[in-house]
Amino acid sequence: MKTIKTVVAPLFLSALIFGCGSTADIISTPVENIDSSPLKVSSLTEAEAHNWGHLDLVKDTIPGMSVDKAYAELIKNKKGKKIIVAVIDSGIDIDHEDLDDVIWTNKDEIPNNGKDDDNNGYIDDVHGWNFLGDGYNEQLEYVRILASGDTSNPDYARAKAEYEVEYQKWMERKTQYDQIHQQIKGADQTLTKHFGKKDYSKEEVKNIKTDNEALNQAKQIAQYMFSNGLDSMADAIKEIEEGLESINERLNYNLNKNFNGRVNGDDPNNMATKYYGNNNVKPSRKSESHGTHVAGIIAAERNNGKGANGVANNVEIMAIRAVPNGDEYDKDVALAIRYAVDNGAQIINGSFGKSYSPHSDWVRDAIAYAAKKDVVFVHAAGNDSKDVDVKPNFPDDNINGKEISNTYIRVGALAPKYGSNMVATFSNYGKNNVDVFAPGDDVYSTTPENEYDSKGGTSMAAPAVAGVAALIRSYYPNLTAAQVKQIILDSGLAINTKVIVGGNTSDIRPFADLSKSSKMVNAYNALIMAAKMSK
């Protein structure tokens, strides 16, 4: 899910607020259950950390999807079919060194001639479409509901209550960060003056001996920074300033009732206007890295000697920009799904979501349309540590519990440690409304301008599953989207262990109770089951 940056002060920063101190050839059968896999005791190596989602639980004692095993034993001598995977997200750096050869190109469109050559309503949509236009920041959906002033809206009272809590929380957080910022900057200025230079060392700070109270306090603050992994006071200042930037974005845009980030000129509450935005599918700024990271998890070029390996080969990524820094509009999401389906996508990844959806019927109709057209839709479960059987997370595929699609897969997130902590602390769950779990915490992938980074979220778990779906559709193209979903759910590993739920150590339940399938996705088993089903 596109996650608005959640700013939580690192422990060392929080402490400062109160002062320093204290197929053929396939003969194996899927593994159905793992009762007693050994625990991974040691920390992950760098190689494991960068690839843990592809590792094998039995071999590596890490709850990955057995992707590398699938390639080594099942795929290596086979030729698959190209599969188009649409990524509806914040934009993709289509020029990235690890993605540039896997980007979908609309062969029916002549680039940059200002004409709609394929008559699909979108001019020069060579690699996809951008429904946001030049927009970036947006309000949260409950803020839009509140700003509308429509007290007859059934969600108005709930939106108002949530706004009051959230606004107060973020204002308090801003005050805390401002205090921390001033303390760190003050300490740095004092030390700079003392040493007569800005690039003073840890050792120099350690050796300060003085009766000056201000200098001693500056020394204490600096040593606390250093003891928590920061190499310099400049790094500490940078970290807190990045946090402040995120907090200010939340207050100035996401929670601002008077802000309107819509720049397309269309009415987001009217589906009559469908052709808006532009063909620039890249993120509007480097920090808008979410879509690029998601794309890399699915399809970063494998074994090219560069930063990351995607789950699937034989993939073309269709880039659709529809997720801003804030909550996406239902209209944009509905049209993005339909654009993907109408332009040949066989799988859609949706790493976004929200708790309010004024036009959820538009999006459900689009999800049903995708199912009717034999397209798999993979959706992130959300990052609120909540039960989505009780508290909704949109888009969903059901009305009062009745599903309107048999190709929609909702995914929860796993952390890279088998055992009681294997469910990511932030992950939503639900015995009825979450289908499976997949690697989603601390996942290494592509980010804009040929860079790489680790990110966590169900946003990262969904593309892992989209990648497995792409492998199945590539090597067994006779299978339907509904069969692909069935295979992914049925072939996973059923884990017989209790886990901590929502990061709450007092809430411990069987892993089986957190999703419909009771399983974690396994690419190796999925391909074996696909081979059998395709016959």
Put the structure in a nutshell.
The protein is of the alpha/beta class. 36% of the residues lie in helices and 13% in strands.
Query: Which CATH top level class of the largest domain fits?
Result: Alpha Beta
Q: In the CATH scheme, what's the topology name of the largest domain?
A: Rossmann fold
Radius of gyration: 24 Å
Which shape, going by the Cα principal axes? globular
End-to-end C-alpha gap: 36 Å
Q: By CATH's scheme, which homologous superfamily of the largest domain applies?
A: Peptidase S8/S53 domain
Helix content: 25-40%
Structural commentary:
This protein has 15 helices and 16 strands. With 535 residues, the chain is of the alpha/beta class. It folds into two domains: 31-134 and 267-534, Peptidase S8/S53 domain (Rossmann fold); 161-254, no CATH class. The strands form five sheets. A seven-stranded parallel β-sheet has the order 3-4-2-5-6-9-10, with helices on both faces. Strand 11 and strand 12 form a beta hairpin. Helix 13 packs across helix 14 (481-490) and helix 14 (481-490) crosses helix 15 (523-534). The longest helix has 40 residues, at 156-195.
